Write a sequence for this structure.
C-alpha cells in the first residue's frame, strides 16, 4: 500500500517525506485555503513547490463543476508538472471530464466517492485513482472501511486498473484497516501516519535497553 499525505502544508509534507515512506500528496480546496493559498499564480507556485519536495503523484483539484470548465482547469493543472494528477469530483460532468482526460493521456483522481456505484463509474471512465472518503462515512453513522473492502472486491472481479485511494483518514487505525481491506493507497494527515510509530512497550523496552547499556559503556 502506498502512502500519500493529505495536506497542502509544506512543513508537514517535508516531515513526512523525510521519513522516507512518502509516495505522493493529495490536496483539496479546503486544504489549500487552510494554508492561505489565494489566486491562480499562488496555486501554481504552491503545486510546483510540492512537486519539488515529493517525487510522486500530486493530486490537484479543480473547482469548476461543468465539463468545459473542468477540462480547461485540469489541462492547466496537468501542465504544471508531469506528476500532477487532476482531481475531479464524482458528479455527472466530472465523469465525462474523467473520460476526456483518460482519452487525452491525463491522469485523474475521482474524489468525493461514497458508494460502490460511484467507484464503478470512476473506473469505467478510466480514473487513475478513486477516492472513497472513509472518515466522513464513519461520521454519518456507517462503516467507511466496508466501502474499501467492497470496492476492492469489485475491482478485482472486474479487473479494473483504477487504484483505490482511501481518503478522509482520521486515525492510525484507519490506515491499518485500509491495508487489511485492500486499499492500493492511503492518503492521511501527518498525525495518523506518525501515530503508527507509537507503542508504549517500544518506549519501555528502549528505556530499559538504554539503562542497561550504561552498565557496559
Ligand atoms: C481526499 O483526497 C481529501 O482531501 C480528504 O481525504 C478529505 O478528508 P476530510 O474528510 O478529513 O476532509
Amino acid at each position: 500500500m502506498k502512502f500519500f499525505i493529505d495536506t497542502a502544508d509544506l512543513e508537514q509534507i517535508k516531515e513526512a517525506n523525510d521519513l522516507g515512506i512518502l509516495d505522493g500528496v493529495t490536496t483539496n480546496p479546503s486544504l489549500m485555503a487552510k494554508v492561505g493559498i489565494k489566486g491562480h499564480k499562488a496555486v501554481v507556485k504552491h503545486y510546483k513547490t510540492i512537486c519539488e519536495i515529493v517525487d510522486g503523484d500530486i493530486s490537484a483539484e479543480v473547482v469548476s463543476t461543468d465539463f468545459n470548465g473542468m477540462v480547461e482547469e485540469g489541462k492547466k493543472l496537468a501542465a504544471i508538472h508531469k506528476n500532477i494528477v487532476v482531481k475531479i469530483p464524482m458528479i455527472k460532468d466530472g465523469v465525462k471530464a474523467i473520460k476526456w482526460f483518460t482519452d487525452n493521456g491525463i491522469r485523474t483522481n475521482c474524489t468525493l466517492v461514497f458508494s460502490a456505484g460511484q467507484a464503478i463509474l470512476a473506473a469505467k471512465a478510466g480514473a487513475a485513482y478513486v477516492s472513497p472518503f472513509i472518515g466522513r462515512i464513519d461520521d454519518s453513522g456507517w462503516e467507511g472501511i466496508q466501502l474499501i473492502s467492497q470496492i476492492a472486491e469489485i475491482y478485482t472481479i472486474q479487473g479494473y486498473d483504477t487504484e483505490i485511494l482511501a481518503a478522509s483518514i482520521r486515525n492510525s487505525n484507519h490506515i491499518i484497516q485500509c491495508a487489511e481491506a485492500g486499499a492500493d493507497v492511503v492518503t492521511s494527515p501527518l498525525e495518523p501516519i506518525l501515530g503508527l510509530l507509537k507503542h508504549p512497550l517500544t518506549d519501555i523496552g528502549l528505556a530499559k535497553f538504554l539503562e542497561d547499556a550504561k552498565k557496559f559503556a
Notes: The longest strand covers residues 84-89. Strands lie at 2-6, 24-26, 57-61, 84-89, 108-113, 129-132, 163-166, 185-188.
